[in-house]
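Known limitations

C-alpha cells in this collection are predictions and should be treated as such. Users comparing against experimental data should check residue numbering before alignment. To illustrate the layout, the record for DNA damage-regulated autophagy modulator protein 1 is reproduced below. The input appears on top and the generated C-alpha cells appear beneath it.
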Amino acid sequence: FSDTGTKPPESGIFGFMINISALLGVITMYIRYLLIEKQNESSHFVRSSCNMFSLCIGLMGCIGMGIVATFQELSVPSVHDIGALVAFGSGVVYITLQSIISYKSCPQWNTYLMCHIRMAISVVSCIAFIPMIVFASRISMTKIDWTPGEKDYTYHFVSAICEWTVAFGFIFFFLTFIRDFQ
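Generated C-alpha cells:
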C-alpha cells in the first residue's frame, strides 16, 4: 500500500491524498457520531459513552493515516509502521464497534441486511488485519522493488494483499453510511 508513495512525485500525491482521506474520514465519523446521538435521544439503543468511544477510536485511526502520509516508508520506517498499525488497528476496531451499534439500532434505524453487510465487512477486515501484521513483521528489509523468488517476497506479497483488503473494507464500510446520511 505504502509502496505507491515512496518516490517523488508520487510520494507527494500519495501523502496529500492520504491526508485528504483522513480528513474526510474525520468528517464522516463525526457526522455518524452526531447521527447516532440524535437517534439515541428517542430510542436509547446504545450508551452515549460507547458512541463517543467509537468516535475516539476512529479519530485515532485518522491520526495514524496522517502519520503514514507524513513519514514515508523508506525515510522513517519505524514511525511509518507505527502509524500504519494505529490506522489499520483503530480502523478495524471502529468498523466493528459501528457494526455492533448498527445491530443495536435495528429495526428502527437500520435494516438487518445493512447490519449483516457491515458486520461481514468488519469480519473480513479483521481476518485480513491479522495476517497483514504477521506477514509484515516477518519482512526483514524495507525496499520498494520486489521480484518473485526474492527473500521475504512472499511475506511482502501476502501482507500487501491483506493491507489492500483492509483498506478497501474501510471504503466499502463507509459507503454503507450513504443511506443513513440521507
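For this record: The CA atoms of residues 61 and 88 lie 7 Å apart. The mean pLDDT is 93. Please report discrepancies through the issue tracker.
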